[in-house]
TrEMBL record, chain A:
Keyword annotations: Cell membrane, Membrane, Sugar transport, Transmembrane, Transmembrane helix, Transport
Domain of life: Bacteria
Keyword flag Amino-acid biosynthesis: no
Classification via CDD domains: TM_PBP2
Topology relative to the membrane: Multi-pass membrane protein
Location of the protein in the cell: Cell membrane
UniProt-recorded name of the protein: Maltose/maltodextrin transport system permease protein MalG
UniProtKB/TrEMBL annotation, chain B:
Keyword Transport: yes
Keyword field: Cell membrane, Membrane, Transmembrane, Transmembrane helix, Transport
Ranges that cross the membrane: 12-33, 73-94, 106-127, 156-184, 205-224, 267-284
Topology term for the membrane: Multi-pass membrane protein
UniProt name for this protein: Sugar ABC transporter permease
GO BP annotation list: transmembrane transport
Domain of life where this protein originates: Bacteria
CC terms in the record's Gene Ontology section: plasma membrane
């Protein structure tokens, strides 16, 4: 009886501990982000209130209205930054995916000398810290005359994304059995047709998630953008976020609103691909 | 006339090689060259002033450089290990839940959607000594009536940065380890139970070895962008107060752009590049090794 009782107590306390641990972990993961969202709807007076106001008296869209109306909140042209971010991210993603598909296909389907070495060399280019790379890029781009342009940023981001897209797409093509394409070739397709009609559709969703990964990297990148962009003609949103801090008073509400604007596309896209993303990272890596 | 025919794999890889040489390789060669000169942005002709190893000697004898170097290694060591352990704990807890796993997984992904610059900003706000969430909560609960200077005091600022860094990356480990937990075959675990292993033993000798490749994948992915901590530090403290949170990357940025001493900055940049490459190659090696142990790959 006693051991039975002991056992039951232990199981219940373990269950309680498990629930408590999980609950607090999720709190820590979610509360900081939700707090930013909440503050973007609160008037500045309430954010700065001492003692703090815990239950909001008033929620409004003032910060968003200020951000999109006129020249923007506190003179920060948020809308221009948003367009810049969108143009640069979309263009660089499309190019990176095309290059990545070619490269990933080469790694998945062909055997060649120094394959492992070439692969690690590609990954190593991704490991170069953005700041260290931005110094020479800044000088060279300034010489060539593409500093502070969309073209320069797109080139930088394509290079940044290519290694990782190759890695992911390689993993997805590996899961497509080579017999499929061979069968198509026997039936009279050229290699090119076999690729587009057979292999590409099978790996399509995986490629889409690699694309979203590339998009998010460009969308969120700061270290390179902060040096290669100088003015509103090419500044992206992560760099624009710092415009709020450069003034004497920090505009917390406006920053929160811009943060929400940055997070929404990321949120939607991540939800769309989360399943493929996990599969791609693990299988692309494990079965390599 | 014979047309030059390249092997197909080379043709397919060519675009990637071209763009990477243009944007990564050539700039790096240029920066290697300039690290041997006294190049200053303000005086363009100083690029031809060859000074040999002077910049490297200066970096190696500079106390500020070594302080930043040590701090960077410390940050990476503490943050990566903490992230791994917390991620493992998180994944184990989530995998034990019987219902609502989808929701929990989605919540776990939440920090992954934040760009480092946003994370930096978010925690700058949360740790703000005047209007921040942490101080507000501590004061409202009556734990302290003073404003704790989270980002102003050197040690507390370092703590805040590590907290922010761990917050973002724990879920990367958590998600990948969770995927590993789903992939573990049932048989060895049951065999271990039959043989009388305690749950701790079967975790140590069955589960953990199976998880190692997944942990190394997470480490390899993380090692590719550890330098993103630059974004977080840049916006949270900008290396301050009084250089107490100065990392290698912020030091390089400051020397290059603020002091305009590009040659010196590039020399330090090269040291940081080798640090990053070392981490990456190390984890990719570990990855292939642990794969081989499990008999999973060629």
């Amino acid at each position: 009886m006693a051991t039975n009782m002991n056992h039951r107590i232990r199981r219940h306390s373990l269950k309680g501990l498990h629930f408590f641990g999980l609950f607090s972990a999720m709190m820590v993961l979610c509360v900081p982000g939700l707090w930013i969202v909440l503050n973007s709807f609160r008037p500045t007076v309430e954010i700065m209130a001492k003692p703090p106001v815990w239950i909001p008296n008033e929620l409004n869209l003032d910060h968003y209205r200020a951000m999109f109306g006129g020249i923007g909140e506190g003179g920060v042209p948020v809308l221009t930054y948003f367009t810049n971010s969108l143009i640069i991210s979309v263009t660089s993603t499309v190019i990176a995916i095309l290059i990545g598909m070619a490269g990933g296909y080469a790694f998945a389907r062909y055997k060649f000398k120094f394959k492992g070495g070439v692969f690690v060399a590609l990954m190593v280019t991704r490991a170069v810290p953005g700041v260290a790379l931005s110094l020479p890029l800044f000088i060279i781009f300034a010489r060539v005359g593409i500093i502070d342009t969309h073209l320069g940023m797109v080139m930088a981001y394509v290079a940044l994304n290519v290694p990782f897209t190759i890695w992911l797409i390689d993993g997805f093509f590996r899961q497509v059995p080579p017999e499929l394409a061979e069968a198509a070739e026997i039936d009279g397709c050229t290699r090119w047709q076999a690729f587009w009609r057979v292999e590409f559709p099978v790996a399509r969703s995986g490629i889409a998630s690699a694309g979203i990964f590339a998009f998010l990297t460009s969308w969120n990148e700061y270290a390179l953008a902060s040096q290669l962009t100088r003015s509103t003609t090419s500044k992206t949103m992560p760099v624009g976020l710092l415009d709020f801090t450069s003034e004497f008073t920090l505009n917390w509400g406006g920053m929160c609103a811009l943060a929400v604007l940055m997070i929404i596309p990321a949120l939607i896209l991540t939800f769309l691909v989360q399943k493929h993303l996990i599969a791609g990272l693990t299988f692309g890596g494990v079965k390599g | 006339m014979k047309r030059l025919k390249l092997p197909p794999w080379l043709v397919l890889l060519l675009p990637a090689i071209i763009i990477l040489s243009a944007v990564v390789l050539i700039p790096l060669v240029f920066s290697l060259y300039s690290s041997f000169t006294s190049y200053r942005l303000t005086r363009p002709d100083s690029i031809f002033n060859w000074v040999g190893l002077f910049n490297y000697e200066k970096a190696v004898t500079d106390v500020k450089f070594w302080a930043a170097f040590g701090r960077t290694v410390l940050l990476l060591a503490v943050a990566l290990n903490l992230e791994m352990l917390l991620g493992l704990g998180l994944a184990l807890m989530v995998s034990k839940v019987t219902s609502g796993q989808r929701l929990l997984r989605t919540m776990m992904m939440f920090p992954m959607m934040f760009s480092p610059i946003l994370v930096g900003f978010q925690f700058k706000f949360i740790f703000n000594d005047n209007v921040g969430l942490v101080n507000n909560a501590l004061q409202s609960l009556g734990i302290t009536d003073q404003a704790i200077p989270w980002l102003v005091d050197g040690n507390l600022a370092m703590f805040s940065i590590i907290f922010a860094e761990v917050w973002t990356a724990t879920s990367v480990f958590g998600i990948l380890i969770l995927a590993g937990l789903y992939a573990i075959p049932r048989d060895p675990l049951e065999a271990a139970k039959v043989d009388g292993c305690t749950s701790l033993q079967s975790f140590r000798y069955v589960t953990l070895p199976f998880l190692m490749p997944f942990i190394y994948i997470a480490m390899a992915i993380r090692s590719l962008d550890v330098a993103r901590a630059y974004d977080i530090v840049q916006i949270m403290t900008n290396g301050g107060p009084a250089r107490r949170t100065e990392l290698l990357w912020t030091l390089i940025g400051r020397t290059g752009y603020v002091d305009a001493r590009m040659g010196y900055a590039n020399a330090m940049g090269y040291i940081s590049i080798f640090l990053a490459i070392f981490f990456t190659v190390y984890f990719f090696k570990k990855l292939t090794q642990s794969r081989r142990e499990l008999g999973m790959g060629a």
